[in-house]
Amino acid sequence: MGARHRRARNSMGLRSTAVVAAAVAVPAVVAQPAVAGPATGPDRSTPCAASADVCVDLSRHRAWLLDDGTVTEGPVPVTTGSRRNPTPTGTFHVQRKDRDHVSKEVRNAAMPWSVFFDDQGRALHGGSLSRASAGCIHLDDEDARTFFDALHPGDEVQIVE
Length: 161
Hints:
Organism: Actinomycetospora termitidis
Pathway: Cell wall biogenesis; peptidoglycan biosynthesis
EC number: 2.-.-.-
CATH superfamily of the largest domain: L,D-transpeptidase catalytic domain-like
Domain L,D-TPase catalytic: 52-160
Strand content: 35-45%
Pfam family, one: YkuD
Distance between the termini: 38 Å
Number of helices: 1
């Protein structure tokens, strides 16, 4: 049986999420408020704030999708920029999406499932996990499609060292 997500506000007015399983006896889940630290769980903790919709950890070469501080996908492997073309750190927002983008800056390189997050043309997209990018965040094609489908303009992208 699938689980349903129920969102509520606690006595301090902070939004929290609890998971209620149908016809299964499970201990109560105490959700962290949205202003709490990183999402947690077995091998699913992230170094990003709960406000992030995407968390990318450059040093661990991992990325996660989050919903109100709860990991919904990941960690998934990524490759990022080189020393010459580094991936920037900081907080960004999804600007636009393009399912079949082709780079004009990097020799007409295919950038499937692109989710653009800065004014320099950097994006999360399908790409090689065996080499550095030109500053983008490469995911395998299946993960890139999952991120593409889940994200919308305005969603928060956090990239940390």
